[in-house]
Amino acid sequence: MDQEQNPAPVQARASEIRAQAGALWRRATAQIIRIPVTARVLLGFLLLAGILMAAHIALAGKDASLRLKVQHGFRTAQFSMWIDGDLVYSGKLIGAPVRKFGLLPGSIQGSLSETFPISSGDHQVRVRIVSDDGVTQENSIKGDFTRNSQRTLSVNVRRNDVSLNWQGSEMPVAESASAGTGWFSRYAGTLLMTIAGSIVSALTGYMIRELPKQIGSRSQ
Asked: Which of 36, 125, 154, 189 has the fewest CB atoms nearer than 10 Å to its CB?
């Protein structure tokens, strides 16, 4: 008969790990406290500048859109979509029986429609459907997106097949949507870059002024 494992060594090891983690946290806190307040503020501004630059890059790249239209025959299923390997959507498909002539029970049908911002250029779209009984289906398709346009991807899912097709031709983005997106990309993006540039310039000037003083005080 197997012997039961003594919990005492496990608890001792866990207590030791907690003690080491607590000691590391106290040492890190002590090091942070030693950093001058001005340096901490500068680090915060530098982090803010990095976030603003990253936001500008992300906003400037989304100049097209992909409209997803799914038709399926499942009561419930899990649907996921990737664009260039990045998961952009994961949700549940829900269908309901459609009656024939309003009386006889017919097949189950359901639909899903979503729109996703995307950058112009070539992209690969991959979809995966996992039915409620555990059957997994996948398919992928490539598409080219031009600037300020929208493409519609039609996904037709059945029990043993999933087909992907680009529906129709590229459609220009509506005037109101393109105007709003263009305004945001131009003015908000420019504002973010201006703020980030100002922060970096201020940090550089401060370091040029204060670094010699810090070096001199440490040498003394």
From this structure: 36
